[in-house]
Amino acid sequence: MKYNELLNTNQILDLLIKHLNLSPVQRGKSIFFLCPFHEDSNPSLGLEPNRKIFKCFACNFSARNIFEFWAKYKFGNKEITPTQFRQALEEISKLGYLPSSVWQKVEGEKTKSKNRIVDLFALVTDIYQHNLLTSLGKGVLNYLYQRQLNNELIDRFSLGCSISNKQITTLLFQEKGVNSEDLLITNLVQVNDNNHKYDYFPANQLVLPLKNELGEIVALVTRKMATSSQEGKYNYLPNYSTYQKSSLLYNYSSVKQSRAEEVYLVEGFFDVISLTRLGIENCLAILGTSLSTSQLSLLHKLKKRIILFLDGDRAGWEATVGIAVGLLLNEVDCEIIKHDYQNDPDEICCHYGGEIVQNILQTRQNPYLFILDYYSRYWEIKENPQRIARFIGDIAKVFAKFKENIHRFLMERVSILTNWSQEEVEAHFAPRRFPVLHINQYCQKIIQEKEAQIITFCTCQRKFWLIVIQSEYFFKQKINRQYYQNIYNYYMVTPTNKFFPEKYYSLSPENIKEDLDQIFSTVDKVWKFSLSANNYYEKNQKTF
Length: 544
Known about the structure:
Elements: H1 9-19, E1 25-27, E2 30-33, E3 45-48, E4 53-56, E5 62-63, H2 66-75, H3 82-94, H4 100-131, H5 138-146, H6 151-156, E6 160-162, H7 167-172, H8 180-185, E7 189-191, E8 197-199, E9 205-211, E10 217-224, E11 234-236, H9 252-257, E12 262-266, H10 269-277, E13 283-285, H11 293-302, E14 305-308, H12 314-329, E15 334-337, H13 345-360, E16 364-365, H14 367-379, H15 385-398, H16 404-418, H17 422-429, H18 435-460, H19 462-471, H20 478-493, H21 516-540
Parallel strand pairs: 12-13, 12-14, 14-15
Antiparallel strand pairs: 1-2, 2-3, 3-4, 4-5, 6-9, 7-8, 9-10, 10-11, 15-16
């Protein structure tokens, strides 16, 4: 189903005006609005009435249909998840713009499509698995044997290989029972400029399936057998409607069923597979060096202690620090395996064997202490006052969003680590505890007070509203933009009315001593000060 065909242009305009408080301006065939995704004083967000797509010519925002626009507006993101898109569909349906029959049809088609895609990936995975048993797949199979994998492990992780860049296209594109559009939607089959179809994955690559939380295969990734230093080893299928790489954790569905109280979090596929080979089965891979919001949510749902086991080099330590901070902020219990091997877990498993790996898994450290240790090594603090000050600044910045009791704990540990008194540590620590946040909060409070006065002026007298229009003032607070839009629409529709019937704030004109020019000037100064504070911090944060 094409989503931009579910609503007509008039319905879309009605939705935007009534429920998002956007005011249309006709320019030629297109309709423009003030873009809500940047500070826009000259309407730059265009709606193309025939195709019903959105495009901002200032900030490059785009949306392929009203539902995508609604989701991006509501969630404040230029990229949305399939779940957020579905919520937008549901919200618009509840507002009466989609009949229940249409909504049920959308839901039904979505379920059918998802089931077809799950079945398709199961079929394609079987084909790639079978390829390992052919003469063309022997090279990849030998590669797996060289990495100490046996047939049981190969089957357990459903590993396979590609043997041609036309195999899936030839076997399935015209096959009865297979929807050719699904092959294109999932990117398993590509079409070039000459309309020639070919497989997304080229020949002679190891194929690994990616499963969702339910254990359904929703994507594939391949590993190249030979790569140059400039090339990446892995090639992922591009994201599509029900799959995003950043929302998955490798081996999650298996770990979720485990009764183990701990989970080892590693970086890559073969880290998981090699640890499993040694009998350490409760392992997850993040498929990168950082955790997304979706992945953090999955880990939180496990309700298990997360044991970070990443590479032992500088890059691995940096990744460990970033991941640990994310886990701690989301109140996920975690520990860190601290080891001195300059290898990843897969290499350690292959080179040193089970006994040494088991010993390594017991060398754990509190995440806060690991981060302190990392930055003390980074700055080589010793007894250098300048390096110690920068070390404290880094710690304050990393833990800026944490609670006061954590700050106190860290300052005590830093005092012990540096041989500085707690008073000296706090003197360097306190000013760096997210200073820009405090400035911004103060500035936003002032701006809100002043804008409330402007709104109150506009509701009291039409002539005050005309002064605001002439000033071309842009409201900084989103809620005030919505209030002003309502006032604007009311006065434009009823030009004879001298005041607005609704009061958004309890202020009265008698309590307002400043005139509008004074208010505009104050807001402008505070806003510029807030921006300059942010810019200064961005330029100088390395020295904090």
